[in-house]
Specification:
single chain; 351 residues; alpha/beta; TIM Barrel; two-stranded antiparallel sheet; 12% strand; globular
């Protein structure tokens, strides 16, 4: 089967395969014992920047679960580390920056770094290793964080629940905000382009914190920069954000997104009514249910598949990432279930 006929790529092109393609956000590692064994003694960012290690972690869930795509093992702050920004991922907390970006002079300092100067050699090598093993049957999805989520971490200096400083900067110093977000868009685009050049078949832009924004703020201060992050990327784009139901239509990025990911809060058929018939939907199994008894999980997955039939095509995924405590066998059973259910065109499913 040529790679272009892979179910995931067909779904991204708007062609509904015989069975719904499935992969899981944060499938690379997280719940796998082989991942934990491999990571012993290695810090997260070091693992991301060691090509053979990043490649092996990317491949582990593909081998175990027989998912329809690999997702490149990385972290949203990796391109910032490549740009020379001092950042560490603290276990149990997340990315922490030595020098937060909160003033106009801070923005001057960080935007003086040329995004084109990022040395992506290690990333490209890791992608090539993955693509060589995946062969012509399973596509690889490249990965990058969206400008707002990256900016939220940078401005706050680390994880935050409400991102007050980042949201305040938008209104108190919009010129600095737009310079920072525009620079981050270039950084993310450089990172995605490197993965694409090395063989990734599609890319996903991930906006973890966009749900903290009002629709007006998202449209004015964020959407243009997210669109710029994928502008010129010669590959299908999946755009996913958490809590983006109030402005889901804007997640299409003016038509640049081939697929829009939907979190667990909004049923997929309702999402399709907002998004329109000319975009693929991705999602949206509730990660909280992965610890439920199998009959509960099975009924939920079947309901997600049923509602996903309203779209031109559907990629089964979680409504967010795999919780670390998930039993890997559950993910394998979900893949097997998805591959056992025959799909039908949206027009027929709606009858």
């Amino acid at each position: 089967m040529p790679l272009n006929d892979a179910p995931l790529l067909r779904a991204l092109a708007g062609i509904r395969p015989e069975t719904t393609p499935v992969w899981f956000m944060r499938q690379a590692g997280r719940s796998l014992p082989e991942y934990r064994d491999l990571r012993v003694g290695t810090r997260m960012l070091d693992a991301c920047l060691t090509p053979d290690l990043a490649a092996e972690i990317t491949l582990q869930p593909v081998r175990r679960h027989s998912v329809d795509a690999g997702i490149f093992f990385s972290d949203i702050v990796v391109p910032l580390r490549l740009a020379g920004v001092e950042v560490e991922i603290e276990p149990g907390r997340g990315p922490v920056f030595a020098e937060p970006v909160r003033t106009a002079s801070d923005v001057d300092r960080i935007t003086a770094i040329d995004p084109a100067s990022l040395d992506t050699t290690q990333i490209e090598e890791a992608v090539r290793l993955v693509v060589a093993e995946l062969g012509d049957r399973t596509p690889l999805i490249g990965f990058a964080g969206a400008p707002f989520t990256l900016a939220a971490y940078l401005v706050e200096g680390g994880p935050s629940k409400e991102h007050l400083r980042a949201r305040a900067m938008m209104h108190t110093d919009p010129e600095s905000w737009n310079r920072l977000a525009g620079w981050l868009a270039e950084v993310s685009r450089t990172f995605l382009a490197a993965q694409r050049a090395a063989g990734a078949s599609a890319v996903q832009l991930f906006d973890s914190w966009a749900g903290s924004l009002s629709p007006a703020d998202y449209r004015a201060f964020v959407a243009p920069h997210s669109a710029a992050a994928v502008d010129g990327i010669d590959a299908p784009v999946i755009h996913f954000g958490v809590g983006t139901g109030p402005f889901l239509g804007d997640m299409r990025l003016g038509g640049r997104a081939a697929a829009v990911g939907v979190d667990w809060r909004l049923p997929l058929d309702e999402a399709v009514a907002v998004l329109g018939p000319d975009v693929t939907v991705q999602g949206n199994i509730d990660p909280a249910l992965l610890t439920a008894p199998w009959p509960v999980i099975e009924a939920h997955v079947r309901e997600v598949l049923r509602r996903g039939a309203a779209a031109r095509a559907h990629i089964l995924n979680l409504g967010h990432g795999v919780p670390p405590e998930t039993d890997p066998a559950v993910l394998t059973r979900i893949v097997e279930l998805a591959h056992s259910v025959r799909t039908e065109p949206a027009a027929e499913a709606a009858r």
